[in-house]
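=== RUN LOG ===
request id: a7f3
mode: sequence -> structure
chains: 1
length: 99
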Amino acid sequence: MKGPQKKLRSKQIFLFSTIGVVLTAMLLFIVFGDMGLKDLFARRAERNEILTGNENIFIENTSLYQQMERLENDPEFIEATARKELGVVDPDERIIKLK
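=== RESULT ===
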């Protein structure tokens, strides 16, 4: 190669090397930097956990609301709950304790 072509070739190599380093740095920043892909996947996983927790709370809340309705309106359920949780017995019942 002649002198001017060699200079041009070395300038091209330097330019492409610089562009490669800059693009690699940008890619690393996009993947691992703040608010990068790694953080995005972590936030999605956290969001999915929260949504699952919300669904479980909704199911529990619905169950408790139904239980509350039954405690307000269902005399048999009220009696069964009082017997189970408070140990309530009717006056004409006898309690037999087994050892």
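=== NOTES ===
Residues 37-73 form the longest helix (37 residues).
The two ends are 107 Å apart (CA to CA).
=== END ===
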